[in-house]
Design brief:
Blueprint: H1 2-13, H2 19-41, H3 46-68, H4 75-111
Helix pairs in contact: 2-3
Length: 115
């Protein structure tokens, strides 16, 4: 009985994903990289350009982390590694925006010439 448990654990530990999965992800990475290149090729400017570039970058990074780093099969790790850092960055950016508005108000009040 102990030998059967050991062979099951070894089999589960050595489990590999089909090569088709990696080829499909590689294809999507190629397509997303092409779209990212086309943003510059068509000369898009302003917020549209940066939004598209960031969108393609995040999608490519998500695919790489999820499949090649095997995070797609680890729910808790995926949540902590993928979702938590951007949320914390947004919280810190919001704090900086509020503080910058306060600093700007104080400078306007302090440096305002008396009329």
């Amino acid at each position: 009985m102990h030998e059967a448990y050991a062979s099951e654990a070894t089999h589960a530990e050595g489990q590999q994903h089909p090569i088709k999965l990696y080829l499909v992800v590689w294809g999507w990475l190629f397509v997303l990289s092409t779209f990212s290149y086309l943003v510059d090729y068509f000369g898009l400017q302003g917020y549209l350009r940066w939004s598209l570039i960031l969108l393609f970058m995040v999608l490519k990074a998500g695919l790489i982390v999820a499949v090649f780093m095997h995070m797609a099969w680890e729910r808790l790790a995926l949540t902590y590694a993928i979702l938590l850092p951007p949320v914390l960055v947004l919280v810190f950016v919001a704090i900086m925006v509020f503080e910058s508005e306060y600093t700007h108000l104080i400078r306007v009040l302090f440096f305002a010439s008396p009329t």
